[in-house]
Amino acid sequence: xxxxxxxxxxxxxxxxxxxxxxxxxxxxxxxxxxxxxxxxxxxxxxxxxxxxxxxxxxxxxxxxxxxxxxxxxxxxxxxxxxxxxxxxxxxxxxxxxxxxxxxxxxxxxxxxxxxxxxxxxxxxxxxxxxxxxxxxxxxxxxxxxxxxxxxxxxxxxxxxxxxxxxxxxxxxxxxxxxxxxxxxxxxxxxxxxxxxxxxxxxxxxxxxxxxxxxxxxxxxxxxxxxxxxxxxxxxxxxxxxxxxxxxxxxxxxxxxxxxxxxxxxx
Amino acid sequence: xxxxxxxxxxxxxxxxxxxxxxxxxxxxxxxxxxxxxxxxxxxxxxxxxxxxxxxxxxxxxxxxxxxxxxxxxxxxxxxxxxxxxxxxxxxxxxxxxxxxxxxxxxxxxxxxxxxxxxxxxxxxxxxxxxxxxxxxxxxxxxxxxxxxxxxxxxxxxxxxxxxxxxxxxxxxxxxxxxxxxxxxxxxxxxxxxxxxxxxxxxxxxxxxxxxxxxxxxxxxxxxxxxxxxxx
Amino acid sequence: xxxxxxxxxxxxxxxxxxxxxxxxxxxxxxxxxxxxxxxxxxxxxxxxxxxxxxxxxxxxxxxxxxxxxxxxxxxxxxxxxxxxxxxxxxxxxxxxxxxxxxxxxxxxxxxxxxxxxxxxxxx
Lengths: 266, 231, 123
Hints:
Chain A folds into two domains: 1-122; 129-266, no CATH class. Chain A is 86% helix and 0% strand. Chain A contains nine helices and no strands. The model of chain A has no long low-confidence stretch (mean pLDDT 87). In chain B, helix 4 (107-116) packs antiparallel against helix 5.
């Protein structure tokens, strides 16, 4: 069931977002072409194409965000909800499929942006200067930290994804909380979002001010600078992963509970 | 045999307002039942409760002995009053969706009915008229071999020819193992098709009887309804 | 023959009468096969359960026979058919006579009206 839901999610959202990514990349290529025809002075066609490119880039990020919200609301909490919630599947699968697909498009838009920048900036310098520099920095990084470096990268990616997931889930939870109200649902959702963000920030401060953290700084002082920075990095990464992981679980639970027990379609 | 639908003391309140109060009902397999009442009487609330789209405030509702949930959704085919078709799919896409999620869905039957209604499988749902969308929804619902069909106001905003088609579909789809519950306030049109009727008003069951018993008394169900619900 | 079902009498009784009429007037000749319950129900726009009961009643009355494998057919027993025709005729006459009595006609007047009408209809 989950895979089928994911399939339909991708179909419904991809038809809007994939063309947008394509437009971004194509336009980056077109801009590149325009640049190659002019001399190195800053001329009008170049200025215009850069502006349009930036607009498309921003538009792409905005659309990814809008599609994520609109898809959740429209498909589950408007008339389409009559179809979705009578399908023989569990509510958590609906939430998870949308979460997964939103994550995919968030990462996708990020990758598309990078790709478009590479296309724009693509010339010999890329191969003669940029890539060698990149490789040099990376090999320095690996040689300093050894095995740890692989771990760092993994933890960094994991932390990034968990933060993204928690960002998506707080929005879903806000929409679900807004649904509890019979009027002014949009306002209620915004209010819920503010409330949830505030609560999570308070929680963050509470946890980071725990007295037990003092012994940590003592331990760090006892290490040499390399070990210390490695330790700090791991510690911070795992703190982020666990903290935002728990937050995500909380938001998921709220959303699931509301859609299961307090659903009230018009 | 377990009744296909059973309500015991079923109550649903929204804030202070009680949409359903202490409803007790037992409906068997193989019946075509009319859930009859004026607008706002609680018919839709009852149907939503059966579909697990709402949870009871008190009492219980059981489908084939089970609490509404995953297993009951598999055996219920629901036609809501609303149009739940999305606008980006084509007709064959939504048929694909139903095939994907419902084991008892028969796509050949659906295509057959669509052909008779002159609806093309490649039409975009977005471009269909309101009446046509309703027909597509009906086709989807009736192409399932469910144990319980819940039709919420299926003939409400529909022209007389379509009304006849809907009734014809319900009759020809009839399966002695399955039950069809039709909720409506337009009674004279569907009376002939009903085995059993339940009158509901202001959240309470006012009357439940077989159609024959009512007619033995020399009244039509429509006539009795007007009597009972006289303003 | 259109199925003209009145709203204030039990449907199943009306179905029995209607099918009886079709049999006796030759629309369903003796020995002919009856459509399936579902098809008949669709034609009449009624619940198949109700149609089923009507057919069972007709079977009880001997006008319809169920074959295990090939559905239902009309009886070939002409005695049965004649009996049913007579029964219906008597019912019609009884209804008529009761109404005439209510209107206050006596036997002689009733007979003369009848013979007069028969002449009219024939001519």
